Amino acid sequence: MTLKRLPAKFYRLPSGREPVREWLRSLPVADRRILGEDIKDVEFAWPLGLPLVRSLGRGLWEVRSTLTQGRIARVIFCITDSEMVLLNGFIKKTQKTPASEIELALQRMQGEQQ
Predict the structure, then answer these.
(1) What is the pTM of this model?
(2) Are 24 and 35 in contact (CB under 8 A)?
């Protein structure tokens, strides 16, 4: 059995909600499967680079997934205590990752590391 090099966990709000898990559940099954496979690939093969993983700087990374119907999704994560913490997930609608999505991930990362 191969061990995960970087096990994933969901960021949890103080209320106990897990926004990335909720977002994933809102997606069609086929898209959830694609994202799950991509996250699993990162867990088992870390460290990875493009095309699957890209550094966003400031301790953030993104998993880059191509979904059904040509849509593109991103899951932003940080690494805390040798775990991949899934901070934010969204469907990408522009060429560049929106600053608001990165800011949200940074805020969650700061909360995670306290």
Answers:
(1) 0.94
(2) yes
